[in-house]
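Quiz preparation item.
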C-alpha cells in the first residue's frame, strides 16, 4: 500500500502542490483556530490515522478514511478540483488537511511546510514588536496567548506554570535590543500576559487553588522585580504612552477581573507604591475610581479609594472612608494599614487602626477562622506598637484579642511599667515557663521581681499536683526561678522559710523530696 500511495502522490504532484498552496493562502497561523486545525491534522497524518480506502485511476478519484474521534470519509476529485468530507465542517476541515498532508509527504517535506506555515505567525509577531507602540506590544501578547492558552477550556491547573513560562519564552524572543527599553518591555508584557491568563485561574478544588495561589505569588514576585528595575531607570519621553497603558491595564486588572482579590490588590499596589508616583497620575486614577460604577463583586472599592486618599494626603476624605468599614472586610483595611506603615505615614496609620479597633472583637471571634487568629492578633499588635494607644484603647485591643493577645499585651504592660497587672494577667491565664519567656518575664524580673513570687508558686504547685517524677523535676525548675526572684527582691529569709514549709507539707512524697534536695533550693 505504501508503494501505491507513493505512486499516486507522484502522479498527482501538481494537484497536491496546488492544494497545499491554497491551504497556505487560506489559513493563517496567527489565527488560533487555523493554527490548531493544522496542528491536529498534522497529528492525524503523522500517526497513521489516515488510509486510502479506494482509488479510481480512470475517474481520478481518491477516497480516504480518517480515524478521528468520529471516523470521517474525505474524497478528492482530481478532475473537478474538488475535495469533500462527510463531517460537513468548513472548507478545510482537519480530515481533508490530514489526507492532503499524507499525500504531500511523498512529494516534499511536510515538516518543512509546517515550519514555513508557522513562520508566518513569527513574522507577523516581529512586525508587532518592531512597531514600538503599546498597541503593538499588546497585540503581540494577545496573539501568543491565543495560540497557547485561549482555547484551553478545561485546563489542568498543574500545567499552568509551564504553559505560562512557554508563552513568556515566546514573548522574550521579541525583546527590544536597546537596554533602556528591555525592563519596560518585560514588565509591560508580563503584566499583559498575566491579565490574559487570569481567567484560567479558577480551579474546582482546594488543592488546585493552593497551587494557583503559589503560581500567582511567584508571578507577583517577578512583577515586583521588573517594577523595581524599571523604576530605577530614568524615564524616556517616548515611554509615556506605555506608562499610560500600564495604568489602564492595572486598573482593569484590579477592578474588572474576578477572583483572588487580595493577590490582585497586592499587584496593583506594587505599581502605585513604587512606579506610578506622580501626583497628577494618582489624582487621575482616583477620579477613575470615584467614577467607577461597574466593578467585580469581590472588589472593595472604598478601600482602594482610601489608598489614594492616603497617598495624596487627603486625610478628611480618608476619615470619611474609614466610617464605612465593615467587620468582614477588616483584612483589606489591614493591608491599607501596612501600606501606611511602609510609607511612614503615622497619621494615616493611627486613623486606620483606631477605626478598626471597635470591630476587632466581632471580627476575631466571629468572622476569622481559628487557625488565623493568633497571626492576625500579632500582626495587628505590631502595627499598634507604632502608635500611641490610650489605656482604654489598649484594654479594648486585649479584650478583643483574648488568649491570642497574651504575648503582645504582656509586652504592652511591661512597656507601661504595669508589672503587677502583668503578673495578674498570667495568673488569670496560666501557661508555662517557656511562654513566660516569650511574654517578657526577664524584664519583670529585672524591674519588679517580687510580683513573680505568687506566679511561680502557682506554676510549681500545678506541676506537683501531677504526681510524677518528671513533673517534680519541672516544679523544681520553677522554684529555682522563684529563688532567683526572691534573691533579687531581697527576700532571703522569706524564701528559706518557704522551702522549709514545702519540705514539711510534702514530706510523704519521697520522689519530690529527693528532687528538692538535688535542687539545692535554699539561699
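Solution:
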Amino acid at each position: 500500500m505504501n508503494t501505491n500511495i507513493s505512486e499516486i502522490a507522484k502522479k498527482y504532484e501538481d494537484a497536491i502542490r496546488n492544494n497545499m498552496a491554497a491551504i497556505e493562502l487560506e489559513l493563517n497561523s496567527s489565527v488560533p483556530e487555523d493554527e490548531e486545525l493544522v496542528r491536529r491534522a498534522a497529528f492525524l497524518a503523522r500517526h497513521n490515522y489516515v488510509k486510502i480506502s479506494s482509488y479510481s485511476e480512470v475517474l481520478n478519484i481518491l477516497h480516504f478514511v480518517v480515524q478521528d474521534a468520529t471516523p470521517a470519509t474525505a474524497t478528492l476529485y482530481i478532475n473537478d478540483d474538488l475535495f469533500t468530507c462527510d463531517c460537513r465542517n468548513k472548507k478545510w476541515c482537519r480530515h481533508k488537511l490530514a489526507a492532503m498532508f499524507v499525500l504531500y509527504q511523498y512529494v516534499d517535506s511536510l515538516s518543512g511546510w509546517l515550519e514555513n506555515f508557522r513562520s508566518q505567525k513569527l513574522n507577523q509577531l516581529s512586525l508587532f514588536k518592531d512597531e514600538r507602540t503599546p498597541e503593538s506590544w499588546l497585540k503581540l501578547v494577545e496573539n501568543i496567548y491565543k495560540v497557547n492558552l485561549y482555547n484551553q477550556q478545561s485546563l489542568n491547573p498543574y500545567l499552568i506554570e509551564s504553559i505560562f513560562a512557554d508563552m513568556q519564552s515566546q514573548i522574550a524572543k521579541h525583546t527590544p535590543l536597546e537596554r533602556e527599553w528591555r525592563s519596560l518591555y518585560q514588565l509591560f508584557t508580563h503584566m499583559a500576559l498575566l491579565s490574559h491568563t487570569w481567567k484560567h485561574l479558577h480551579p474546582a478544588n482546594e488543592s488546585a487553588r493552593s497551587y494557583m495561589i503559589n503560581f500567582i505569588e511567584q508571578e507577583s514576585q517577578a512583577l515586583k522585580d521588573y517594577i523595581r528595575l524599571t523604576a530605577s531607570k530614568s524615564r524616556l519621553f517616548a515611554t509615556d504612552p506605555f506608562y499610560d497603558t500600564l495604568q489602564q491595564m492595572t486598573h482593569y486588572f484590579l477592578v474588572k477581573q474576578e477572583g483572588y482579590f487580595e493577590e490582585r490588590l497586592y499587584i496593583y499596589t506594587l505599581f502605585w507604591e513604587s512606579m506610578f508616583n506622580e501626583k497628577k497620575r494618582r489624582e487621575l486614577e482616583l477620579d477613575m475610581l470615584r467614577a467607577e460604577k461597574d466593578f467585580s463583586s469581590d472588589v472593595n472599592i472604598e478601600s482602594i479609594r482610601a489608598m489614594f486618599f492616603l497617598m495624596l494626603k487627603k486625610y478628611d476624605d480618608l476619615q470619611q472612608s474609614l466610617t464605612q468599614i465593615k467587620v468582614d472586610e477588616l483584612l483589606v483595611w489591614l493591608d491599607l494599614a501596612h501600606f501606611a506603615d511602609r510609607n511612614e505615614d503615622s497619621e494615616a496609620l493611627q486613623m486606620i487602626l483606631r477605626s478598626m479597633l471597635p470591630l476587632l472583637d466581632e471580627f476575631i471571634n466571629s468572622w476569622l477562622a481559628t487557625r488565623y487568629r493568633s497571626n492576625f492578633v500579632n500582626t495587628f499588635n505590631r502595627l499598634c506598637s507604632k502608635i500611641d494607644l490610650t489605656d482604654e484603647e489598649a484594654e479594648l485591643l486585649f479584650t478583643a484579642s483574648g488568649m491570642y493577645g497574651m504575648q503582645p499585651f504582656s509586652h504592652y504592660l511591661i512597656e507601661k511599667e504595669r508589672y503587677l497587672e502583668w503578673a495578674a494577667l498570667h495568673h488569670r491565664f496560666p501557661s508555662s515557663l517557656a511562654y513566660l519567656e516569650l511574654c517578657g518575664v526577664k524584664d519583670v524580673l529585672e524591674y519588679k521581681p517580687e510580683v513573680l513570687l505568687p506566679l511561680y508558686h502557682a506554676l510549681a504547685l500545678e506541676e506537683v499536683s501531677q504526681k510524677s517524677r518528671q513533673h517534680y523535676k519541672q516544679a523544681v525548675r520553677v522554684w529555682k526561678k522563684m529563688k532567683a526572684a526572691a534573691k533579687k527582691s531581697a527576700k532571703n529569709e522569706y524564701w528559706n522559710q518557704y522551702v522549709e514549709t514545702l519540705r514539711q507539707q510534702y514530706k510523704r512524697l519521697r520522689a519530690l523530696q529527693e528532687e528538692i534536695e538535688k535542687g539545692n533550693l535554699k539561699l
